[in-house]
Amino acid sequence: QVQLVESGGGLVQAGGSLRLSCAASGRTFSRYAMGWFRQAPGKEREFVAAISWSGGPSYYADSVKGRFTISRDNAKNTVYLEMNSLKPEDTAVYYCAAARRLITTPTMYDSWGQGTQVTVSS
Questions:
Q1: Does residue 91 contact residue 80 with C-beta atoms inside 8 Å?
Q2: Under 8 Å CB-to-CB from 81, ≥6 apart: which residues?
Q3: Which long-range contacts (CB under 8 A, 24 or more apart) does 103-111 make?
Q4: If pLDDT is split at 50, 70 and 90, which confidence band does 79 have?
Q5: Cα–Cα dist 64/85, whole Å
Q6: Cα dihedral sign for 5, 62, 42, 104?
Q7: What pLDDT is stored for residue 30 in this prediction?
Q8: What are the beta bridge partners of residue 121?
Q9: Measured distance CA(80)–CA(78) in Å, rounded
Q10: 36 vs 8, 9, 45, 122, CA distance in Å?
Q11: Looking at the predicted structure, is the pLDDT value of residue 57 above 80?
């Protein structure tokens, strides 16, 4: 497993941008696919984006496609989520997670960060 720490959340106006980072500890980071998930109050945790171990293939939820971009830097043990054109409905706690393969199902992820709050005001 890897230990994950998210950062970069905050308060932003609708239409604005944020970049989330997720720093991983351990030498096996490059073996994992990485995902971003979010959970709004009273709602289930939902998939946002995922990227393969190589940084090649990636998946996005339909709700963020074209606005969010996931990327990773294996030399820095870090995965990023660039979020543009933010909407109030993007407000949630955002979590990064690590999995053995590229997948969108949260239960298949082995390690989770503590989350970072993103609030988008209208």
A1: no
A2: 19, 20, 22, 36, 48, 49, 68, 69, 70, 94, 96
A3: 103/33, 103/35, 103/50, 104/35, 104/47, 104/50, 104/59, 104/61, 105/47, 106/35, 106/37, 106/45, 106/47, 109/35, 109/37, 110/1, 111/1, 111/2, 111/3, 111/4, 111/32
A4: very high
A5: 10
A6: negative
A7: 87
A8: 13
A9: 7
A10: 13, 13, 10, 23
A11: yes
Q: At 100, is the pLDDT very low, low, confident or very high (cuts 50, 70, 90)?
A: very high
- In our burial notation (b when 16+ CB lie closer than 10 A, e otherwise), range 55-71 reads eeebbbbeebeeebbbe
Q: Which two tokens stand for residue 75?
A: 């030399």
Residues for the chain: how many in total? 122
> Of all residues in the chain, what percent carry a pLDDT higher than 70?
100
How confident is residue 1, by pLDDT bands cut at 50, 70 and 90?
A: confident
Burial of 72 (C-beta count, 10 Å sphere; 0-12/13-18/19+): buried
